[in-house]
Structure formats: C-alpha cells, structure tokens
Amino acid sequence: MKYIIAIVQPDRVDDVLDALEKKEIHLVTVTSVLGRGRQKGIAEVYRSHKEAGSLLRKVKIETAVNEDYVKPAIEAITKGARTGNIGDGKIFVLDLDECVRIRTGESGKVAIG
C-alpha cells in the first residue's frame, strides 16, 4: 500500500481529478494549502516598494492506493497537472503500513478499496 501526496496548481485540480477518475481512483482528499518551491514565491510591487511574496496558493491531493494503482495514479496526476511551466508541482509516494476502515473494522488492502 502507498500513500500518494500531490501538490498542484489550483487551476489544474479538476483535470487531475478527472484523470484519476479515468484510472478508477476515486478516493481522494483535496486541501487548499500555501507553499513555495524553487521560485520562492512571487515578488510584488506595493506602493513603489518591491516586496517578495513568500507563499503561493497550491492544492494538496492525497490518496491511498494498493500497489497495482501506484503507477496509474502517478501517470494520472502528472497528465492532469503538467503545464510545462515552473510551479507545476510535486508528487510524493510514501509507504503505508496500515489502513483501517472505521465503519467495518476492515484493515489492509481491503480497507483501501
């Protein structure tokens, strides 16, 4: 089991979710977040004074998948999020030791769905 976290541009969320849906990955959590990457934010001019903006709006998409869905999930997220410009985002893949479905008490691969 793997836990996949993707940080993407807000305007690419619908495309990412559509691409995941096509790969039959339905269980996702989406959160609005602030962050920065190599570009270190965007410089803004305020009252003739240049101020560095340190954090940009991003969206975090999280999903837990079984091994067979890791590669399709990464492909779907990449396809939906990629614009070719700086700031397209990142995908993190983490090992997932345990998953428990609260309603039924099922655990492991069965609980992910």
Explained architecture:
- Helix 1 (13-22) packs antiparallel against helix 2.
- The mean pLDDT is 90.
- This protein has helices at 13-22, 70-81, 109-112, and strands spanning 2-8, 29-35, 43-46, 49-52, 56-65, 89-95.
- It has one domain: Alpha-Beta Plaits.
- The strands form 2 sheets. A 4-stranded antiparallel beta sheet has the order 2-5-1-6, covered by helices on one side. Strands 3-4 form a two-stranded antiparallel sheet.
- With 113 residues, the chain is of the alpha+beta class.
Q: Helix and strand layout, with pairings?
A:
Blueprint lengths: L1 E7 L4 H10 L6 E7 L7 E4 L2 E4 L3 E10 L4 H12 L7 E7 L13 H4 L1
Antiparallel strand pairs: 1-5, 1-6, 2-5, 3-4
Helix pairs in contact: 1-2
What structural class results from the helix and strand content? Answer: alpha+beta
**Which range does the strand content fall in?**
25-35%
User: Could you please say which CATH topology applies here?
Assistant: Alpha-Beta Plaits
- The residue ranges in which pLDDT falls below 50 over 5 or more consecutive positions are none
Question: Mean pLDDT across all residues, rounded?
Answer: 90
Give the number of domains: 1
CATH uppermost class: Alpha Beta
The number of helical runs is: 3
- Provide the spatial order of strands within the biggest beta sheet: 2-5-1-6
The largest pleated sheet is described as: 4 strands, antiparallel
> Any idea what the shape is?
elongated
The radius of gyration over CA amounts to 17 Å
Q: How many E strands?
A: 6
Instruction: Please report the distance between the alpha carbons of the first and last residues.
Output: 11 Å
N to C succession of SSEs: EHEEEEHEH
- The CATH architecture category equals 2-Layer Sandwich
Portion of residues in helices?
10-25%
